[in-house]
Every structure is written in structure tokens, then in C-alpha cells.
Design brief:
197 residues; alpha+beta; 3-stranded antiparallel β-sheet; 4 helices; 26% helix
Length: 197
């Protein structure tokens, strides 16, 4: 066998062994790398949620779950919006400077459209679930109550824009998640209107 054939054979065996090693490594690593991807269930938990508001009456609220958290969509009536505008209660964070919400919800109604409030239904104190108390001046909440959300666990009070009232143990307003409207009938919770615009 000639010296030239021997070098050629060694070169071929080196290349073949290297290629086989790389393919074997790729086949071995693929399932390992795939295990880092979230499961279908985990992806579904983080997926946006579509809320049909076409049949949501004024003054009514619908509840959905997004990322394992309760999200409330309240269709505020004209009367509710008037009560919100006339409210004289002292608020901890009236301008929502310290609270969590998208920039487009940093206004007096904390909403893209004043008539629809989209809010995460967990109290910012200890994560309890406040109750909707839309009636005016009930006996247990006093004559100054103009409607909103009340957390019976520790007494936090939130107005109809989910802003926390002074004297409540909750430190900040209820959280407004990212959301956007699709036409007049749908809200997609989990997709930012600022990014879609």
C-alpha cells in the first residue's frame, strides 16, 4: 500500500468518525434541549384569553382566568362612571403612579375605553379575592361608599376604577393586565394594546 493511499484512508476515516460523532451528539442532545421548552399545558396557561363582551350588560361583570389569575371585566354603566367622576373619597394612588398597569390605562378610569374595566381580581395586600359591591351606601360599608370592590379578609376598599382607598391595608391599586380590543365585541387579555397599535 502506498503512502498516499494510507493518508487518504486516514483522512476519510477521520472525517467519517467526526461526522458520525457530530450526528450522534445532535441526536443525543435534541431530547435534552427539547425538555427545556414549556409543556403544552404551561404554554396554554400563559396564552392570551379572549373575552366576548357583546352580551355583557351594563353593570355586569364577567370573570376569566389568565395565567392562573382571576381577571374581571366590568361593563360600567353611565351611572357608575358618573359616580366614579363625582367620587370624593381619599385615594392612596389616585393617579396610579405607584400601581401596575399598562401606560394606556394610566387615566382616571384606568381603562382603554371608560365603560370597560379589565382588572386582575387579587387584592394587592395579601392576594385575597375582593367582592364586587356596586351598590351605593350599604349599611356595612357606610354612607360614603359609592360602589367598587371590597376585600372582606382585611377590609381593603377599591373604587369602581379599582383604585385603593385611604385607610385600606392594600398598598396599591388592583393590577390592570395588558389587554386590547378586537372590534366592538372582543377583549383579548394578555396582548398589549400599545404593541398592537
Amino acid at each position: 500500500m502506498s503512502e498516499e493511499a494510507s493518508v487518504s484512508r486516514r483522512h476519510f476515516l477521520t472525517v467519517a468518525t467526526s461526522v458520525t460523532g457530530v450526528v450522534g451528539l445532535a441526536l443525543t442532545a435534541a431530547p435534552f434541549i427539547a425538555s427545556f421548552r414549556p409543556s403544552t399545558r404551561a404554554r396554554a396557561l400563559g396564552a392570551p384569553v379572549t373575552v366576548d363582551i357583546s352580551r355583557l350588560d351594563e353593570g355586569a361583570m364577567v370573570r376569566v382566568v389568565w395565567r392562573g389569575q382571576p381577571v374581571w371585566v366590568l361593563h360600567r354603566s353611565k351611572e357608575m362612571l358618573e359616580r366614579l367622576a363625582d367620587e370624593k373619597s381619599a385615594l392612596k394612588d389616585k393617579d396610579s403612579a405607584e400601581s401596575i398597569q399598562p401606560e394606556y390605562a394610566r387615566n382616571a378610569t384606568r381603562a382603554l375605553r371608560p365603560e370597560f374595566l379589565v382588572v386582575i381580581g387579587n387584592c394587592t395586600h395579601l392576594g385575597c379575592a375582593p367582592l364586587e359591591r356596586f351598590e351605593v351606601a350599604p349599611a356595612d360599608l357606610g354612607p360614603d361608599w359609592v360602589g367598587g370592590f371590597f376585600c372582606p379578609c382585611h377590609g381593603s376598599k377599591f373604587d369602581l376604577a379599582a383604585r385603593v382607598m385611604d385607610g385600606s391595608p392594600a398598598p396599591t391599586n388592583l393590577v390592570i393586565p395588558p389587554y386590547r380590543f378586537v372590534g366592538e365585541e372582543l377583549i383579548i387579555v394578555g396582548e398589549d394594546a400599545g404593541a398592537a397599535a
